[in-house]
Write a structure and sequence with these properties.
Blueprint (H helix, E strand, L loop, with lengths): L3 E3 L16 E3 L11 E3 H8 L6 H9 L4 E2 L2 E2 L6 E3 L3 E4 L4 E7 L5 E5 L7 E11 L5 E5 L4 E4 L17 E5 L5 E5 L6 E4 L8 E8 L8 E5 L4 E5 L3 E5 L11
């Protein structure tokens, strides 16, 4: 696997000029897949304009001036993806990675009070030996939940496709948003991507086809498959900037 890929073959989610150069830096394998992430170098140079050249961007990153989810990242190929929080303390820059309506990864400005916790979607979960439950999140994180009986509805409260607000300082769950009727969701794929709407209904299909979710916003009603639904709150978005 090379460190670069041709700019024309770069993921369509990268909001960069396609014909300026032949090559572009490739994200290192990490918390996000290639098609769903940006290398930190592009964030510093092309998105935030902190540098004009690759050399300048690498120096800024190597000096630990960029924080991703409260951690210094000095690898210019480190992948950042959906809901990651990027901070540059010296420049007082705070951004969150989300999608726009064209499917591009973009960086939205974030208030200081909303930089301490990150939204994560539960992709699946595993019952470990001893009965504890491991939650596997969309960004590669795994969270262990200690329970006495994982089959008890009172203890098995976290479900696949629910969302969690994770405290970035402690790594603990600070809030739990359920994937259910009435919850507020961000659509991450399909023709309605980047839309924020309320879940009206979830149609369970007893077939190989994915389940369908009916949603509504102030302007329209639409449907999408449940894989594209990312819950961001139950009554209102827990991070308001995601919905703006």
């Amino acid at each position: 696997m090379g460190k670069h890929l041709k700019r024309l073959n770069a993921p369509k989610s990268w909001k960069i000029p396609r014909k300026r150069n032949v090559w572009v830096v490739k994200p290192r394998p990490g918390p996000h897949r290639l098609m769903e992430s940006l290398p930190l170098l592009l964030v510093a140079r092309d998105y935030l304009g902190l540098a004009e050249t690759t050399r300048e961007a690498k120096r800024i990153i190597n000096e630990g001036k960029i924080l991703v989810n409260k951690e210094e990242r000095t690898d210019h190929r480190f992948p950042v993806g959906l809901m990651d929080i990027i901070e540059i303390p010296e420049a007082k820059e705070r951004r969150i990675v989300i999608l726009d309506k064209k499917g591009n990864l973009i960086l939205k400005k974030l208030s200081k009070k909303n930089t301490n916790a990150k939204l994560c979607k539960i992709k699946n979960k595993t019952i470990l030996k001893g009965g504890n439950v491991q939650l596997n999140l969309h960004d590669g994180q795994n969270i262990l939940v200690e329970v006495k009986n994982p089959k008890s509805p009172k203890e098995d409260v976290y479900k696949t496709r629910d969302s969690l607000l994770i405290d970035l300082k402690t790594g603990k769950i600070s809030s739990h948003m359920r994937y259910k009727k009435g919850s507020i969701a961000l659509v991450t794929g399909g023709s309605h991507r980047a839309s924020v709407a309320k879940i009206d209904d979830i149609k369970i299909l007893n077939s190989p086809q994915p389940n369908v979710v009916m949603l509504s916003s102030d302007k329209k009603k639409f449907q999408t498959i449940e894989d594209y639904v990312f819950v961001i709150g139950e009554k209102e978005p827990v991070i308001p900037e995601v919905a703006k």
